[in-house]
UniProtKB/TrEMBL annotation, chain A:
Keywords recorded for this protein, A-Z: Amino-acid biosynthesis, Branched-chain amino acid biosynthesis, FAD, Flavoprotein, Magnesium, Metal-binding, Thiamine pyrophosphate, Transferase
E.C. code: 2.2.1.6
Cofactor: thiamine diphosphate; Mg(2+)
Family statement drawn from the similarity comment of this UniProt entry: Belongs to the TPP enzyme family.
Protein name as catalogued: Acetolactate synthase
GO molecular function: acetolactate synthase activity; flavin adenine dinucleotide binding; magnesium ion binding; thiamine pyrophosphate binding
Signal peptide: none
Cofactor note: Binds 1 thiamine pyrophosphate per subunit. Binds 1 Mg(2+) ion per subunit.
One BP annotation, GO: isoleucine biosynthetic process
GO CC list: acetolactate synthase complex
Amino acid sequence: MSEKMTGAQMVVTALKDQGVDTIFGYPGGAVLPIYDALFHQNSVKHVLVRHEQGAVHAAEGYARSSGKIGVVLVTSGPGATNAVTGLTDALLDSIPLVCITGQVPTHLIGSDAFQECDTVGITRHCTKHNYLVRQVEDLPRILHEAFYVAQHGRPGPVVIDIPKDVQFALGLYAGPENIEHKTYKPAFKGDLGRIDEALSWIAAAKRPIFYTGGGIINSGPEASALLRELVDLTGAPITSTLMGLGAYPASSPRWLGMLGMHGTYEANNAMHDCDLMIAIGARFDDRITGRIDAFSPGSRKIHIDIDPSSINKTVKVDLGIVGDCTAVLRDMVARWKERHLACDAAVLQKWWQEIDHWRARKSLAYRASNKVIKPQYAIQRLFELTRGRDTYISTEVGQHQMWAAQHYHFDEPNRWMTSGGLGTMGYGLPAAIGAQMAHPGSLVVDIAGEASILMNIQELSTAVQFRLPVKIFILNNQYMGMVRQWQELLHGGRYSESYSEALPDFVKLAEAYGCHGIRCADPNTLDAAILEMIETPKPVLFDCIVDREENCLPMIPSGKAHNEMILPDMETELGTAIDAAGKILV
Amino acid sequence: MNAPAAPLSPYSSAPAASKIEVHTLSVLVDNEPGVLARVVGLFSGRGYNIESLTVAEVAHAEHLSRITIVTSGTPEMIEQIVHQLERLIPIHRVTDLTLRGGSIERELAMIKVAGRGENRVEAMRLADAFRARVVDATIDSFVFELTGNAGKIDQFVELMRPIGLVEVSRTGIAAMTRGPDAI
């Protein structure tokens, strides 16, 4: 069925046909025809943000918490360039997005027209793919192709740049039926021979460990369920990256916590000493591996990933399986059962004894206080008091993010939204808005730092306008805490520009925006304050004043191996923990 | 005193000892605007090296272009380059011709030489030996057209230098596997 309509109407019709119910955007001259088309319908809801970066992060939060595709609509020039940080964030974390940008009319392209920029040129490196639509005849195909590309294979952001005259032009619309990219057909199922080989290795391993990442979450809830089944069938320990939290329940005894730079002692030592590493949907990021030449030197490595370029990129593996996590895990579970495989319980028992020995070091411990709120304590209380509720957590970037990853525990996927790959300050509040849009009845908390929250604080207006009761839980130590920690580690404690001299009064700021503000500096009243935050049925800005000098431990100093961690109970002078060779690696 | 240890970078994907190889890649792409920028941008953005690059449409009806890239790097880097290229949406197929048992490689060059008397005679004599064609001649100059592998062209240019080399224009390498099979 095809009918004649304008390009702008095609955009809105395509969104409906793709099942999109919510988009995030900001109007401007070059995109007004699409805004006009939105005005004439009720099935696609538009969320007006206050900055285009906020629109992209909100779409990411929406996508990550719901498993749907996030959609962004912004104007040309500054609208498009403001979206670049968000697009890069989505690319590095493999989040499926479609971002529609307006462009000046085709006859003005290349003339340095008002609000013109080379959007496809600028976004080429921060998208999975991008399009400049030159004529309305191409628009329906490109719209549906963009949705296909964004979600198939390794997900990612796709930009469609639409000149204003193309938005006005009349053409024939075609629906998404049978839209398939003519060349882009990524592998879905993994090679069965290799899967069988991998299973034989797992059954024979003496010290196996699963190392899982965001790919499991991106693959959908079935992947998490299958992962649980496979881990339980084998009885092996499991750790995950920052992006992978929630794919396997943190409450399980098989769960070793997060690995990597701020991972647990047991997870990192197990990674170092394992004889078989099963990496699934994880990409051996440098924050995970530490020193490559000392990374798990004695192990064979299996790597399951949908992106062939991730295999052997930084770490040479012994067995690579290209495929979607769900499809590969389904085959693994089925073949394990069919072949009646089992790990040797007595052999694994010895491995678990070693792990328990590392666990006993309690690497996430910290010195408690009843005078000042310890940031770890604040997260623990937030976790305990939100437990049992339907809770979604986003974060900004910095120490608070790592403390949240260490001390807030997730038993379900899609509950944890954080900027992993790019490390974008200002991510958490708009992401929380996106998650709250997707889950209106749930509790959504942005765990923030006082410096990060200021990067996109304007989105409080969005939360108020759309009556989104997001909670912003600021761990306020008056420092860019992670910067301060690194300056302590690497620069002799010279805290160059990392102290915030003129912070706003967050309670008054909350009130100015029409939100509720809470401040708490006393560990004895913290629980009551957190409960007040949870129970207030509107956006809340919670200024939690915490210990200014607490460091985020444990930590692998840069340039060191997994078994060379700094632990909280060591009396190491942080200033001497990293040698000259390590300092250049930050 | 202990000598300071050489910094060990955790970011390098290849050990320093790994040897650099030169590979010729054939890349079949949709002939659409911006496709070359995507390919070239991938090399510059990820720090890979391009030694030679040629591109032209090879199947008009199917809108297909063939890009031939000569690149250098460790075997691990070349493997990454191939995978990273394969990730680009408009790319149909990437073939490492070097891994496929080597390829026939040809390049076209135009070489301008100026000179009179003895030099003019010498230039003509060498051009003959290299099977270069004269495509332009004036009283004191020649433009030669020469086809061959890159080494042959290098050699001819070096011979022309003392005789009166003025300028060189080269196309870069076009390559194909031997035998009856398509890539």
